[in-house]
Specification:
The chain is α/β, with parallel strands linked by helices. The chain folds into two domains: 108 residues, no CATH class; 103 residues, Alpha-Beta Barrel (TIM Barrel). The protein is built from eight helices and nine strands. β7, α8 and β8 form a beta-alpha-beta unit. It is globular, with a radius of gyration of 17 Å. The two termini are 21 Å apart.
Length: 235
Amino acid sequence: MSTIYHIVQFEDGSAYLMFDVCNWRCSYCIRNVSGWCTSLPEATIKTLNRIEHKYINIDELLKILKENGVKLAFLGGGEPTQDPELKGIMRLLKENGIDSWLITNGELLDEEIFQLSKGITFSIKAIDEAKHIKLTGRSNRRVLNNYQRFGNDEKVVAETVYYPNIIGCEEVQKIAEFVHSVNPRARFRIDPAVQLRDKSGLKDCVEKIRLIHENTYYFDFAGKSKPPKLLYPKI
């Protein structure tokens, strides 16, 4: 049994699988806002909020993905590498023609998980260790070591969250400098915290960061696409 409790499918056919485990306690975690995909219609989220998380078994997971023609599965949450079934799930998906894209804090990333992944979004929360501990409850030493180990591969996308007064542009700049030192060609994505209302500062920050690391970009998903299709749980 996995700890996957929620699956949605996007317009492009890819799916997002949410794992119900994490070894960090980020103060601005999206799961503090909602335990469900925030792109779903509000009425759907309200209905989901009335039910408990129910983990899906591996056979049912594969059946749902194949029935819906999924060829790329984003594994997020939560922290997928905390799930003891992760490697088995990734191997099973690969055997059935489904690529895995891992979204991870990188602390527990290892060679086998790396090799099983089509791509990896590697989230770096802070460079300053004391700040990282305050934000997440964990040291970032292993995270930074793992990024140095794997970050030079083109399938790795470095990512961080921008949230003024928590992770502002000064800290994002330090992360960009670190990413650049490992791989000057790396993609570096800056995401606005889900709680962030005014994103004007984010745009200004991205322009500053591009002077340090050219391949920097950000996503603002608001109003950009149709809501995803709910695949699990059924309501």
